[in-house]
Amino acid sequence: MNIPMPQVKPITQDNTKLQSEVIGLFKSGDLKWNTGGTIQEKKDGLNCVLQGLRKLQLWIEREYDVEKKKSLQNQYDARREETCKRLETLEKYEKGEIVQDTSGNGGSNQQQQKKQGEKDTKSELSNALSDAIVKDKPNVKWTDIAGLEAAKSALQEAVLLPIKFPDFFEGARTPWKGILMYGPPGTGKTYLAKACATEAEGTFFSVSSADLISKYVGESEKLIKTLFTMAREQKPSIIFIDEIDSMCGARGEGQNDASRRVITEFLVQMQGVGHDDKGVLVLGATNLPWALDTAIRRRFEKRIYIPLPDVQAREYMIQNSLKQTKTTLTKEQFEDLAVKTEGYSGSDISVLVRDAVYEPVRKLQSAKKFKQIPVNGQLKWTPVAENEDGTPKTFMELSQGDIAIPDVCYNDFLLALKKSKKSVSQDQLGDFEKWTKEFGQEG
Q1: Confidence of residue 349 (pLDDT cuts 50, 70, 90)
Q2: Keywords in UniProt for this one (predicted)?
Q3: Which residues contact 316 (CB under 8 A, 6 or more apart)?
Q4: Which residues lie across from 380 on neighbouring strands?
Q5: Residue 229: which CATH number?
Q6: Rounded distance between C-alpha atoms, residue 256 and residue 282, angstroms
Q7: Which of 124, 241, 392, 407 is the most buried (most CB within 10 A)?
C-alpha cells in the first residue's frame, strides 16, 4: 500500500543581517572610490565592494523566494560588471595613464579625471558623427539638375568660389555662412546638396535630426557642438541638415526644455561669440519653412525657394531619365509629355518615367504571341498583338537571351500618365509663394 508523503514547506531563513552588511559594504566602497584622492584609497573602496559582492552571493544562495532571488542575481550581475570597469580604471591609475595626487589632495585628481572624461566623451561623440561625413562623392553634377538657375548660382557663390578664389572674398565681400533651401517635397533640394558634395573640395557633413537628437539629457547639445567643432577643424566644410524643421521648430510655451536647449546650442554654434566660422557653410533643407524658429531663420542669410519644375525643366528631366534606355520618342513627343505633366514635382516625374519603362515588361508578361526579329545578328523573340501574325508562346517558355524587350514608346507614357497623380496641391504652393514674398527669394 502506497502511503502519500507529506508535502514539506520550504524552509525560510532570515537574511536581514546579510542584507544590512551588503548595503553597508557597497555604500562604504562607493564613497571611498568616488572621493578617494589616492590609489590606495580607491583600492580600499574597491575591496569593500568586492566583500559586498561575496556577501551578496551568499545571500543569493540562502534565498528561497524565487522572485527575490532573481532580483538579487540581476543586482549582482550589474555590480560585478561595474566592478570590472573599476578594476580596469585602477590599472590605468597604476600605469600612470591617469594622474593621481598621492598627497591625498583629491581636488587635483578630480580635475584630471574630469579632463580625461571630457576627452573620452568628445572622442565618442566624434565617432558617432563620423558616419555623417560623406566620403564617397555622390557623382551628381550641376548639369544633371534641370532649371533652378538662381539656386545653383547662389550655391556656387557659397561653395565653389570661396574655395577656388579666396582672394576675392575680403572686407565686406564675405562668403555666405547659411543657406536655406525650401519648397514642396520632391523638387530637388537634397539633389542640390548632392551636387554640392560632388563639386566641393572639402569635407561634407550630411546629418539629420536622428544624428543630433539623443534621449539622454544634454547629449544633443554636445553632439551639435562636436559637429561644428569637427567642421571647423576640417574646413573648408559644408554641414547639410535635411528636414531642419524637425530639430529647430519655433519656440513656444508648450515646448519642453530639452528642445529649447537644442535650438539655443544650434544658434550659438551657427553665429555665436568666439567662433571662427570662416570656411564653414551650413546648408539647410525643409518642406515647412514657416515652422522654423525666427532666430534660426535669421541665421540662414540666403533663403531660396525651390519651386516645381517648369515645362523646359520637365522635358529635360524626362529626356535625362531615358538617356540609358532605348526609346522611340521624338522631340515633339517629349515636349508634349512636358506639357501634360504640369504641376508634377521632380520626384513625381521620376516615378512616372519608372512606371512607363515597365510597360514593355508588362507587354512580355501579357503577350500570347511572339515573332522573331534580328537583333545584332541574332534572331530574338519579341511580343506581338493578338491580331498580328506570330507563334503562340508565353515569355516563361523563353530564356532571357532569346527575348528582345520592346523599346519604350509614347503610348507607354500615356498609359503611365493615366495611373500617376501629382503629390503637391495648389494650396501648398500658395503657402510657399506667400512665405517667399515675405522672407525668401525665387530659386
Answers
A1: very high
A2: ATP-binding, Endosome, Membrane, Nucleotide-binding
A3: 146, 147
A4: 373
A5: 3.40.50.300
A6: 25
A7: 241
Contact 205, 134 (CB under 8 A): yes
Task: Classify strands 369-375 and 378-384 as parallel, antiparallel or unpaired.
Answer: antiparallel
| 65, three cell numbers | 523566494
Decide: helix, strand or coil at residue 375. Answer: strand
More confident: 124 or 109: 124
Whether the predicted pLDDT of 145 surpasses 70: yes
Owning domain of residue 57: 16-104
> What is the pLDDT, as a whole number, of residue 84?
85
**Is the domain of 298 the same as that of 157?**
yes
Number of domains present in the structure of the chain? 3
Domain check: are 296 and 171 in the same one? yes
Describe the crossing of helices 66-95 and 39-62 by its angle, rounded to 10 degrees: 160
Query: In this structure, what C-alpha cell is assigned to residue 298?
Result: 535669421
232 with 327, same domain: the answer is no
- Kindly report the CATH number assigned to the domain that includes residue 409: 1.10.8.60
Residues 198 and 183 in one domain: yes
pLDDT of residue 104: 45
Assigned domain for 3 exists: no
For residues 247 and 221, the answer to whether their CB atoms sit within 8 Å is: no
**383 in a structural domain:** yes
pTM summary value: 0.64
Say whether both 269 and 409 belong to one domain: no
Q: What is the pLDDT of residue 8?
A: 43
Residue 370: which H helix or E strand, with range? strand 369-375
Query: Does 297 fall in a domain?
Result: yes
11-67: pLDDT as tens digits? 456 677 778 888 888 888 888 888 777 778 888 888 888 888 888 888 888 777 888
Say whether both 176 and 296 belong to one domain. Answer: yes
155 and 76 co-located in one domain: no
Q: Are 205 and 239 in contact (CB under 8 A)?
A: yes
Is the pLDDT assigned to residue 132 strictly greater than 80? no
For residue 160 the three cell numbers come to 565653389
Tens digits of residue pLDDT in 210-265? 777 777 777 888 888 888 888 888 878 888 888 888 878 777 666 667 778 888 88
- pLDDT at residue 167, rounded to an integer: 80
CB 22 within 8 A of CB 29: no
Element (H, E) at 32: helix 16-35
